[in-house]
Design brief:
single chain; alpha/beta; Rossmann fold; 434 Repressor (Amino-terminal Domain); 3 domains; 21 helices; binds guanosine-5'-triphosphate; binds magnesium ion
Amino acid sequence: MLDKLSSSLKETIRKIAMAKRIDKHTVDELVRDIQRALIQADVKISLVKELSSRIRERSLKEKMVLNPREHVIKVVYEELINIIGKSVEVPLAAQKIMMVGLHGSGKTSSCAKLARYFQKKGLKPAVICADVYRPAASDQLRQLCDKIGVPFYDSANLPERNKNVMGIVKSGVKEFGKYDVEIIDTAGRHALEEDMIEEIRRIEKTIKPEQRFLILDASIGQQASVQARAFDDAIGITGIIITKMDGTAKGGGALSAVSETNSGVAFIGTGEKVDDFERFESDSFISRLLGMGDIKSLIEMAEGSLKPEDVDVDFLKGKFTLKDLYKQLEAVRKMGPMKKLIQMLPLGGLGIDFDDQMYQITEDKLKTFKVMMDSMTEEELNEPKIIGGSRLKRIARGSGTTTAEVNELVKYHRMMQKMIKSLTSGRGPMMKGMKMPMGKMMKRLK
Ligand SMILES: Nc1nc2c(ncn2[C@@H]2O[C@H](COP(=O)(O)OP(=O)(O)OP(=O)(O)O)[C@@H](O)[C@H]2O)c(=O)[nH]1
Ligand SMILES: [Mg+2]
């Protein structure tokens, strides 16, 4: 999904993370890179311009609580979110949802996907087909609903004289009154014809749906804006579903159409199957696009809104002793804080692979470490750098290990300490040089 945009943005972030310093030149280059990436993904030009000037302004002039590189990355992240807007609330409550959109945009498939979504959340959805123009429309929707066991209503439920759109929606809504979520599929047209707009206006007035979702095909690019405006004018769009995100690099067009409405993206469709459907959250979407585990938590932590207790990484506050190392290793084994910490840092942007090696500290290794540590004095545990020749021998003897093994632990501690220092001081690029020794060290530890 938007792979090309994602790889360009990741490269841009990597450049920033590696930059020797952040100055006007670096920021100009960054802005040019981002512009290129966004325009290729078909994001609306006016939005790209707005984003560019905000990044320029904020990167250099805003008061910084983070180091300059992190500050710029944070600005990019926030401004990208700004383009696609806030995520839309979709309450898990009783409601009527009307689906509108052009011909072939994915309304009917999305009805079933949406029904499935609510079903998984424990609500009872039902679907009404108000498309009387395309003969196959009802069959298509009925089949999808049958597959997921969701009740379905269409003109077949009505006597001949009432087989019109208004008749169907009125009696359908009445019939399904006992269900939690009623989803109403409407007919599409090739273009924004006035009679279609008129029809959805009437449906809207008749049933007063709490939600009016616009379905946009991601592949139509910037055309999406015109549609979004027209539908919003007609019935007031409360949420957008972008379909076919799996099959296009132009998704930026549909994403930027959001700014034409007072709403935001509620869901995205990522395939033809009924489960190929995701809730859309702007912040995690952008984090994913930028290749950052969870940049939001990192920023919150750096800004102090996350208390150290929340993160449970004592060593961020001060010295990192062998005891801390042991505690961390034990936690890592349980997929604990170390993994969490590492995922929170924008390491993706630095091009460092923290693969599973990092987390594979075996039980045996940990036991050996423990035994060696038991043979150490308090002083050695707190100040491992004093462990030299004779101390090494003593510890090895005491723990029934070899000096090489004890040395390995000491070295390993030193590596971790360096890494943590470079992480917490924000001098990210240092990490790069450590990639190899770190990897080798981890291999030896296994
Ligand atoms: N790959 C992919 N295909 C999709 C997605 N959503 C819908 N489609 C396909 O797009 C085609 C059109 O989807 P429909 O749901 O029939 O579109 P519609 O808006 O109801 O079309 P009309 O009723 O004719 O206006 C179908 O072949 C769907 O399988 C998606 O997220 N990914
Ligand atoms: Mg349809």
